[in-house]
Amino acid sequence: MAVKEVEHRQVIVVGAGPAGSAAAQRLAEAGVDVLVLERRTVVGNPAQCGECIPNWGEVIATFHHLDDHDWLKTYFEFPERLRLHRLDNMRVFLPSGKSYDFELDAFAGHRLQFDGYLADKAVRAGAEIRVSTALKRIQQQRKANREVLVTNEGRYSCDYLIDASGSLAHVGRLKHGQDPAFRPDDQVPTVYAQVRGDVPETFDVFLGSVAPSGYAWIIPKGPNTANVGLGVRAGKLKGSLKDHLEQFCKDLNLEVLSIGGGWIPMGGPVKRMVDGTTLAVGDAAGLVMPSNGGGISQAIISGCFAAESILEHLEEGTPLQGYEERVRASMGRALKNSLRSKNMGYAFLRGDIMTEIILRCLGPIGGIKRAMECDRPLWVI
Ligand SMILES: Cc1cc2nc3c(=O)[nH]c(=O)nc-3n(C[C@H](O)[C@H](O)[C@H](O)COP(=O)(O)OP(=O)(O)OC[C@H]3O[C@@H](n4cnc5c(N)ncnc54)[C@H](O)[C@@H]3O)c2cc1C
User: Fold this and answer.
1) Cα 366 to Cα 212: distance, rounded to the nearest angstrom
2) Which residues touch 316 (CB under 8 Å, ≥6 apart)?
């Protein structure tokens, strides 16, 4: 293709994470021409995750209006080969070592394998994924009345654009700069390690000075392996997060095999998910649970909803704004409750003693359980 030539596609998705792959598959199955641009050379590599993947039961227990959604229900039927370890239980540890137990319906997997599986399904449905292709700029061509997506591999235009580029929301950023309406807020730096050693059976979470305004986790992936991580509000921990994680692993006698990290947008949904014919999904729309950092299910659900809104727009002219309304109707309440819990945590859980006293007073039902499950915190009812 000549350097200046612009390739036109019906839908372009930026990013082949869970949100982008789900959207691409849903559209391709309906016969829509869809191209996914992915900057990584291998989809899902490097993984940036604790690798706790929710089952459908967990999804419908948290969000609304999904029980009858057959496409999503089927999408969440992940094959056994992806399921490394069942996560039926979560233990939350206070600074003193006292713990509370909760039920969970999830499993641990390799995120690299998981993202690859989702991308393969999108390709099998007819979507095209171009790897090593990073969106760099968006040019407004007013005369031609179009936006041109400039990548390292060529230039593109499209009828619909889906921003599935993750926490840093590259499309929103390139189009609107610092405008907070399009940028996921409160980016929390997070590091994790793949470890070997004597690991627990349960998903363990640690609160207190080990992770100020955040938490540390151990997610077992098999008999002797786990994903151990640390997410801490920016600026709350002195020194490098990686050093703290290594010390945490050392204290637990766990051997670190590799280290990774990423940003989790903990500020709740962006104010505007729809911008003309551009729809933001997953982390790019700020759909992570602020109180627990989980975002895989919301990424898949929003990817599917965005695709369905585009289909309805194509078929019946239904306004694309319906996408955002549907996201808020299904996930808005849980995300709002989760954000409240996180903000309460930021405000009051300061230091080990305060953290211990407050969480013991609130007890598992009123405080931690509600925060983890994204129910309304008892103290604001
Ligand atoms: C350390 C860590 C631990 C986590 N643990 C969990 C967990 O255990 N369970 C859970 O549910 N959630 C977890 N999350 C959150 C979860 O990973 C995200 O919510 C989820 O991946 C969001 O999916 P997504 O498709 O929106 O974005 P992503 O998975 O981030 O995918 C975005 C894709 O876009 C690509 N991209 C970015 N910019 C460009 C560009 N300019 N051009 C082309 N491609 C681009 C990226 O390479 C990437 O492949 C964790 C996050 C982090 C950082």
Assistant:
1) 21
2) none
The residue contributing the CA closest to ligand 1 atom 27 is: 166
What are the backbone angles phi and psi of residue 173, rounded to the nearest 5°?
-65, -45
Whether residue 47 is found in the same domain as residue 130 = yes
- pLDDT score at 361: 79
Report the helix count and the strand count for the chain, using DSSP H and E: 10, 16
Looking from the CA of residue 217, the nearest atom of ligand 1 is: 8
Tell me which residue range forms the domain holding 120.
Answer: 6-83+109-186+266-340
Question: What residue ranges line ligand 1, CB within 6 angstroms?
Answer: 14-20, 37-40, 48-52, 134-135, 164-166, 170, 190, 192, 229, 261-262, 264, 282-284, 288, 293-296, 299
Q: What are phi and psi of 354, to 5 degrees?
A: -60, -45
Whether residues 127 and 74 share a domain: the answer is yes
Q: Are residues 139 and 257 in the same domain?
A: no
Distance 21 CA to ligand 1 centre (A): 12
Nearest atom in ligand 1 to 260's CA: 1
Write out pLDDT tens, residues 354-380: 888 888 877 666 566 666 666 665 554
Residue 197 vs residue 371, higher pLDDT: 197
Confidence at residue 348, expressed as pLDDT on a 0 to 100 scale: 75
- Which H/E stretch holds residue 337? helix 321-348
167 in a structural domain: yes
Least confident of 46-55, 128-137, 196-205, 346-355: 346-355
CA of 358 to the centre of ligand 1 (A): 32
Out of 125-129, 139-143, 214-218, 219-223, least confident range: 139-143
Task: Tell me the pLDDT tens digit for each residue of 244-254.
Answer: 999 999 999 99
CATH of the domain at 194: 3.30.9.10
Asked if 132 and 205 sit in the same domain, the reply is: no
Together in a domain, 16 and 123: yes
Higher per-residue pLDDT: 234 or 284? 284
> From the CA of 264, how far away is ligand 1's center (Å)?
8
CA of 362 relative to ligand 1 center, distance in Å:
33
Name the closest-CA residue to atom 50, ligand 1: 49
What per-residue confidence (pLDDT) applies to 374?
Answer: 64
DSSP code of residue 81: G
Same domain, 288 and 154: yes
The two three-digit tokens of residue 86, written as one number = 């069942």
